Write the structure tokens for this entry.
Amino acid sequence: MPIASIPLSLIKKIDNISIINIRAVADSPVDISAPNSANASHIAVAPQTNHWVLYLETKGSKSIRLDPTPGADMSMILVVTQEENAYSKTAIKRVSSPAPGI
């Protein structure tokens, strides 16, 4: 999986970051195909999926967000960002695991 984006500020300090918790977080389901797409016209209810993201919680209730995002031709790219929160507060499902010292 190619990595699409890592902020330079995160690259410079990644070796000194301790992970204290790992969270898999799901957002609300969304339609797989757009309502006006050609293959959605004959479907009464569009199929849905939700999007899962990993949050690596660091000290101070901040996190590193690992977001596998669909790319061209069903490939995946990984977008890495640093967040000011431990995880998304709008999540509908969270699964956590302590990770002291990682």
Notes: Residues 8-13 form the longest helix (6 residues).
